[in-house]
Amino acid sequence: MAPPLGWWNKEAHRGTPVVVMMENPNWSIAEISSPDDNDECVVVAGEEFAAAGGGARKGARGRNAKQITWVLLLKAHRAAGSLTSLASAAVGVASAVRRRVASGRTDSDAAVFSREESPLLLSRFYSCIKAFLCLSVVLLGLEVAAYLKGWHLGVEETKHLLLPSSLGVRGLLESLYAGWVRFRVEYIAPPLQLLADACVILFLIQSADRLILCLGCFWMRFKGIKPIPKSTMGTSKDLESGGEDYPMVLVQIPMCNEKEVYQQSIAAVCNLDWPKSNILIQVLDDSDDPTTQALIEEEVEKWQQNGARIVYRHRVLRDGYKAGNLKSAMNCSYVKDYEFVTIFDADFKPSPDFLKRTVHHFKDNEELGLVQARWSFVNKDENLLTRLQNINLCFHFEVEQQVNGAFINFFGFNGTAGVWRIKALEDAGGWMERTTVEDMDIAVRAHLKGWKFVFLNDVECQCELPESYEAYRKQQHRWHSGPMQLFRLCLPDIIRSKIGFWKKSNLILLFFLLRKLILPFYSFTLFCIVLPLTMFVPEAELPAWVVCYVPATMSFLNILPAARSFPFIVPYLLFENTMSVTKFNAMISGLFQLGSAYEWVVTKKSGRSSDGDLISLGKKELRQQQQHASVPNLEAIANRRPQPEKETKRKHNRIYRKELALAFLLLTASARSLLSAQGIHFYFLLFQGITFLLVGLDLIGEQVD
Hints:
Blueprint: E1 18-21, E2 28-32, E3 39-44, E4 47-52, H1 60-103, H2 107-114, H3 119-149, H4 155-158, H5 169-223, H6 236-241, E5 249-255, H7 262-270, E6 279-285, H8 290-305, E7 310-314, H9 321-330, E8 340-343, H10 354-358, E9 368-377, H11 384-407, E10 418-421, H12 422-427, H13 438-448, E11 452-463, H14 469-496, H15 501-536, H16 544-559, H17 569-591, H18 611-628, H19 634-639, H20 657-675, H21 679-696
Parallel strand pairs: 5-6, 5-8, 6-7, 9-11
Antiparallel strand pairs: 1-2, 2-3, 3-4, 8-10, 9-10
């Protein structure tokens, strides 16, 4: 039945039905306006209250007031719930901070055992930051006093002040402040402005390079450009017989004390879809833990019994770390029977069709020396630290590696998940132990010999990201000190090489100087040193677009390959500036051979794996065991010697002193910026200081109870 026409009448209409749902599904509040003018029904929490009215009503205004009241109450309830959550989080953070401070463990304690940094270099760098911090605190006190007293003096005004001897205490302080103004204007501001301008120019050059890479990636997507093999793979029949489409492949798995991940990597490699007669797997174990050695050797024996062609190699002396391990394995006499070598680190789990999708790119392409696959991460959503790493590495693979591989056929080998032509390795001189980035070293030398590289963005190999800040920090230290060591060693060879002028320029100016040296230099200098100092020396200025707009644009471009991580764009920008301390320190130590620039620290793994991989590998392994093992060897089981359990080394969260000192420096500078009413600079310094504080207290990444 249609409603009466009076229902549409504005005068007869007493209100609009409103239903408001609270966060708790057990609560709902509704106000219902009845067609009958004489009664009003309000339902609250499932109970009905009737109010009979007589005569004239107050009309819609009263009901709207009630509706607004209920909405405001609901918003207040929601705000109270949010405050409760924030209070709980604050209590948790405060408890973690208290535990950190009470434990007293700092990065200097870790450096004593791991020799990550030279104590002398560590103390000098830390002392410089402390000096900046103390000076900034003193200047902040002086500026606050001047602000409260109203001493807004220019340079000309300071020249007409009376001598301190003719004034009291107030005059002494005013004269002292005037002397500081004259000194900073004449001696500090000019060099500081020069340094700021130089850093801004470097910042713009690096931003232009990143923008060009992004445009190249967009162009590749728009045109559908990707590496296409010159020939196709053989049929399943060829796979069984091992035809010419399936050349001899050597697979190497270097590892060192990585008992959390050895089973997954060995199982994944043994399940590669390749003729058994045309593949040999080398497990290159550098472990110094007897228990780990026994476990890995036992795993290799198990797969040997299942029919896999796999051998176990152990070095007593770890000369040259990973490079020495690979070099020793390539000296085996049987290597001459193989045409290609594939390398997987201990935490990498290739898919069964990995070799099928990579090796056939070499066929009919004799100039091709390397095929590199991209990485994917099983623990990218584990914590905030892994999410931020995922953003960085997605940009590295999808933009940097893909564009460089497509347009100049050169990029840095990532050390794993790649297939090398053994002839290219030998032509480049083989593995060398002279740096901590042996993968980049061999790639540069192969490029100088004229070999070409291909990057496959659609072929992924799963691995892990460091989940603790300590592990990530050590990894970044090695990744940023090694390129500087290599640059010093390779520069004469690059100049004397026979490659073209533009390739030499790209290698020296872009690959090494801009992306390996200039990037950490300006990032640390501009945002951690120059910007705070300009707050105390206002005569030297940094425009707002340098502090805010350009970094935000670059962060937006960086996050595009990992679009799902867009909500973390601000933490990503702040965290990258925070990591500039470690990267700058590593770059300096590698360039000038300071500290432990040649120290290799194995990145800690947690042994995480995706459920799908575990299920598929488990089923395939079970089928192989059923085919090859009918009756268990009871005698072997009875005679198996129990291995002594090594005491597990406990993990701890630490306090990082350099990051804490810089946090207080930036927070002090943000307080000074309030006196100058510099809005953008204040917010940037405030949030950057808070980020340094969180990182310094090791509140980002894995938390150990």
